[in-house]
């Protein structure tokens, strides 16, 4: 039986988000980004999953980041958001925003690569969930010619998603890439929560 907090977090994440207002207010610091997280059919991960696409608004049909998220609650109430990369993204490009999720029914675990060091840990705090990437330097990212690790945080509410990702040097923890102007503020434009509540559980 899934807990109320787990269902709530997945439902709040399930949507098409935009940081349009933030980008308009401070275009020198924030790009206009679309983030879409679409609930996966239960059988794909035998649990709660989201197919996520992130793209620049001017080219939202060609996302630059595609991941699959699997959310699992631990006995202590912490909710793990496990990350998977797709071995081949081509068959699923654009599937997050289609009227029907037909293509996502064909996803299987063997099409994915787990990213164990990139798991986010969420905890309920009143009307919010706050999350951080698992402590340590396990989420490795090669960028700007350097090996870095992800230092990420996220805050989720019923209609918003705030996140900040920073890449830090493995040796001295110096920030190498990522926002220097604070978190991205995304507002939910389309809500897919009904698809979460309708998931068929065995």
Largest sheet: 10 strands, antiparallel, barrel
Rounded mean pLDDT is 93
Overall number of strands:
13
Number of helices: 4
Q: Kindly report the name of the CATH homologous superfamily.
A: CpcT/CpeT domain
Question: Runs with pLDDT <50, length 5+?
Answer: none
Net shape: globular
User: So, CATH architecture?
Assistant: Beta Barrel
Distance between the termini: 10 Å
Strand content: 35-45%
Return the CATH class: Mainly Beta
What is the ordering of alpha helices and beta strands? HEHEHEEEEEEEEEEEH
Summary keywords:
ten-stranded antiparallel beta barrel; mainly beta; single chain; 202 residues; Lipocalin; globular
How would you explain this protein's 3D organization?
The protein is mainly beta and 202 residues long. The protein has one domain (4-197): Beta Barrel (Lipocalin). Helix content is 12%, strand content 44%. The chain is built from 4 helices and 13 strands. The protein has a 10-stranded antiparallel barrel with strand order 1-2-3-4-5-7-8-10-11-13. Strand 7 and strand 8 form a beta hairpin. The relative contact order is 0.19. The mean pLDDT is 93.
């Amino acid at each position: 039986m899934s807990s109320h907090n787990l269902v709530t977090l997945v439902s709040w994440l399930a949507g098409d988000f935009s940081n349009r207002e933030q980008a308009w207010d401070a275009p020198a610091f924030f790009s206009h980004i679309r983030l879409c997280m679409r609930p996966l059919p239960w059988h794909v991960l035998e649990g709660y999953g989201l197919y996520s696409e992130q793209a620049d608004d001017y080219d939202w049909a060609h996302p630059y980041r595609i991941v699959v998220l699997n959310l699992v609650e631990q006995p202590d109430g912490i909710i793990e958001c496990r990350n998977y990369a797709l071995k081949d993204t081509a068959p699923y490009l654009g599937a997050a925003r289609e009227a029907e999720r037909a293509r996502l029914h064909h996803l299987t675990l063997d099409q994915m690569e787990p990213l164990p060091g990139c798991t986010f840990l969420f905890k309920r705090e009143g009307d919010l969930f706050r999350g951080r990437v698992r402590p340590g330097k396990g989420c490795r990212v090669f960028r700007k010619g350097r090996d870095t690790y992800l230092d990420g945080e996220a805050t989720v509410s019923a209609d918003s998603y705030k996140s900040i990702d920073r890449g830090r040097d493995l040796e001295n923890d110096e920030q190498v890439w990522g926002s220097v102007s604070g978190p991205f503020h995304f507002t939910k434009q389309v809500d897919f929560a009904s698809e979460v509540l309708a998931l068929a559980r065995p």
